[in-house]
Amino acid sequence: MDQFNAFIATINGFLWHNYVLFAVLGAGLLFTFWSGFSQYRSLTHGVAVLGGRYKQPDAPGALSHFQALAAALSATVGLGNIGGVAIAIALGGPGAVFWMWVVGFLGMALKMAEVTLAMIYRNTDDPHNPHGGAMWVIKKAAEERGGRIASAGKALGALFCVTVLVFAITGGNMFQAWNAGDISREYFGVPNIATGIILAVVVGMVILGGISRIGKVAGTLVPAMCGLYLLAGIYVLITNASAIPGTFALIFESAFSATEATGAFLGGSMGYAFLWGMKRALFSSEAGLGSAPMAHAAVQTREPEREGIVAGLEPFIDTLVVCTTTALVILVSGAWNRPAETELATPPVFEQIIEQQYQLQAAPLPSSTKLSAGTPIFMVAHGSDSSDTNNNLIQITGTVEELENGSLAAVFEAISSDVQPTLRDGQIWANYVGATLTAKAFDSAEPGLGKWLVTLAVWLFAISTMISWSYYGEQAMVYLFGENSVTPYRVVYCILAVLSCTGFITSTAELGNFSDLGAGMMLVVNIPITLLLGHKAMAAYKRYNQRLSAGEFNQ
What we know:
The chain has 555 residues and is of the alpha+beta class. It folds into 2 domains: 2-32 and 64-337 and 444-542, Amino acid/polyamine transporter I; 345-425, no CATH class. Helices cover 64% and strands 9% of the residues. Strands 1, 4, 5, 6, 7, 9 and 10 form a 7-stranded antiparallel beta sheet that branches. α15 (313-333) crosses α16 (435-443). It is globular. It starts with a helix and ends in a 6-residue tail after the last helix. 50% of the residues are buried.
């Protein structure tokens, strides 16, 4: 199994290579200029459409524009908005936030283009339950050419559906349930299996009602969960209001220069900040992935371009609003460069295990330490030079362990280094990763706020993500096997949510491997389709704008 996981990881290395990410970024830049900055239309006309001004009750479709956007957002606004942003800042520094904004802005145009294409080519054989997405785009576009190209298009659509199912089952379902179960057990002692059963029942009750019920639930759940999270974030920002101007200055300064190491932050180069900001924005908004068009394709309208304009709001809300809230809370609270939890009077030394492998000796902790057994920790050492951090600092991770006499000791993992590492000092930090760092940032304003808020947010975000990705998987099943395959798929989907919380998954590494494979393949299939047929989306978009400017829709 280890060899198979290594094989999948190797494939993911190609699928998620930086050059692929740059290609997605380039696509966003292309459609931004090609459309004449469609972001403006999304923020003006798109908002008006959400208000119900352009309703078409007799048009094919099952959802209102607001419900379709909410259904798509329920898949994108998730754990990445809490934990992913924290990781981006912890590794890339404050400058990552600026590049997250830039990529989120460009993603609005890319999202508009791919959703417009999905609307143009959607299947409305059943006008009350339409189907759309990259698989229908490539299938129908290839059929227009005929011959072998039609067969190739159908096969490519099937490949896209297989990758959708891989991600829906792993990243969209089991990963969400596992994380909700893990945080509930950690904070409140709730058995993982109980979490899995509750999630399966809740999600099952929603998805059994089809896209109409999903749209209604998402239309209520998404505004509620986003509103709650944003209100808590605003509270933290108000309590740290004096730090806000300096935080923005730091974001812009760090975006174009290296950030020096300070506190728990090891330092970051401009390139590393850009890379992590780009990753966070692309992963969070799913721009270019081809997933959201499946939800938007269920909208009730006769104007394909209109829903494309509405879809442009998705990266704006997900990245420029929700992710930014998380980022600012982490930065103004100082959680990203927090001071050490304790300091050793006599720092341990490194012992060489084999060539270029070193082990830091275990060290007893002072009796005054606030660290407890089982807490992940790290120390900072000088080692090999890194272009990522712009210095030679490396993180030595470990765990606090309780000894037989009841005292505590820091035990560290082995590291690789081209040179003999030496500790920078005797300071030890608690290793807050992802959502835990975000929780600590909220706790800085009100002790306990992070614990309750992040737990609640993880549950709400997990439920919403599982619901939407279940629907995306349904659309793949319909394309591959027809409508009769939907009910068995829903049952299996809910069973897997429970299974992920039974204990057979001890870490999310394997799930992450397969979800990265599914998402990477979706990206590789969808981006070329969007670029090849982009001229149709842009022509339709510009015609719509001409009609809008002429007042045709005001009649």
